[in-house]
Amino acid sequence: MIPELSVSDWRASRDFYCDLIGFSVRYDRPEEGFAFLTLGEAQLMIDQIGIGRDFDMPGAPRERPFGRGVNLQIRVSALEPILARLQLAGIPLYLEPEEKWYRRDDLEVGNRQFIVADPDGYLLRLFEDLGER
Question: Looking at domain 4-52+70-132, which CATH architecture does it have?
Answer without folding.
Answer: Roll (3.10)
